[in-house]
Fold these 2 entries.
Entry 1:
Amino acid sequence: MFSLVFRSKTEGQLSDALKISSRVTQAEAYSTTGETMDIALNFGQGDVVHAGFELYQNQPNPFRGKTLIGFNLPEAASATIKINDVTGRLLKIIEGDFAKGYNQIRLNSSELGAKGVLSYTVETVEYTATKKMIIVE
């Protein structure tokens, strides 16, 4: 068990500033019997915030060669990742079953046959999000 203490430098809701994700390490806790448990933040007013769906900016961006696209799923799900050029032409589609929490895919620019500004979309049955990325060659 541990505690974190934060000091605000600007006005705002703490619940808007802090979120849980599995982007760096898996966001999970363990019971005394070793069972995996979910993690949530409680902001003292009965509001509990769970790690939810989130699409992250690809890293690096802009990129040459390879990039990573990361996303967080609130539960294990099938997802489709679509890469499009600025005209909307579909360049690549990746389908798979992904785990609850942080997931990432590696993308090679040579697989796309395009450069410049592209968009990537992650879709599940319940969620959809799109971001832009730039290929420099």
Entry 2:
Amino acid sequence: MTLAITESERRYGPADLLFAEAVVRQAAVAADNARLYRDAEGAREAAEAASRAKDQFLSTLSHELRTPLNAVNGWATILQRGDLDAEQTRRALQIILRNVTAQVRLIDDLLDVSRIEAGKIRLTVQPVDLRLVIEEAMDGIRPAAAAKNIRLQSVLASPVGPVSGDPDRLQQVVWNLLSNAVKFTPKGGRVQVQLQRVNSQVAITVSDTGMGIGAELLPHIFERFRQGDSSSTRPHGGLGLGLALVRSLAELHGGTVFAESAGEGRGATFEVRLPLMLARPGTETARAALVQSSSLSPGPSLAGIRVLVVDDDPTAVELNRKILTGVGGEVRVCAGGAEALAMLRQWRPDVLTSDIEMPGMDGYSLVRQVRALEPSQGGKTPAIALSAYSRPEDRVRSLMAGFNFHVSKPVDPSELVTIVASLAGRIG
């Protein structure tokens, strides 16, 4: 603040100083108030933007969950009426399975994002052959590509050396990139996967001839819930989680990912780079042999194996009974923990399967009481937890309670049969 006097004979005195100090104090208060008002306005606008983003996300989430449910409910209702011939029934079942798979993937993606944000995601690290990982991911995406007449090509270099990582998570990375490419590539287009060594790294490149990425969106393409078009008229569904998971999982493996595109309508290229292992272990093909043997095997027989199924959901009981008796298993069912304990006294199963959340006595309490029994009374009966709870901490809690395995719903029939056979000593 500057004070000036027009009269040449006038001199400042103590009163002028007091006046200047009072004016400066008032000006400072006014400036502070203006700054606080500006900050408050900024916070209010940020809160309103966050609220709108939350509402938009919940709306999109509801749409993405209800869409497959609508198909499942509709076709299940038609099947129930029995009006379809054999071919139509086969087609209806395919639609139901495809939509259930889509919903499971959506839920898994949401849970993975939550685990990554909380720092709770765990990797089962081992030597990984990326050629096998890519081939498995391509097998999973081929039906979607074939439905759009998209050419799915691979250019995989001769063995480039293993990487250290979680094979399932790395397959998730490749699958998400392929799924994204197929989704945004029009009918008759092309999607290519390339694997090559770049110095001390391995590069996985997925390119397509699709709709491309605008320059304004490209820097934000790996952000969570970020979509090029989130309006109700958008041509493609999804929550904008796939690429965010790709980046997070790649970084957890010590790698990087980047995207490039010449612009809208000119395709896109995504590249993931992962560090090579320093040494090539002698057992790197073990996973490949395991996967190949499991894919070629028709599945073990459960003939002569007794299984006690415990679940308060009649639909789940009916499904599990059908799966296990379909391969020769002898199955008895109970609707709760108390009933299961009573059944153990009169009928000794080889394996017990139990839901976790049940009224009266949950699965944890049931298996603890089973483990408290004498071996002659069934205290050593192998037990499988079949639960919709699928977090890593849920699996740990099941094992600590006394279960031998934790299997997340929806249950894969072949996986359930294999685990039962293994626990009963039929394989392993």
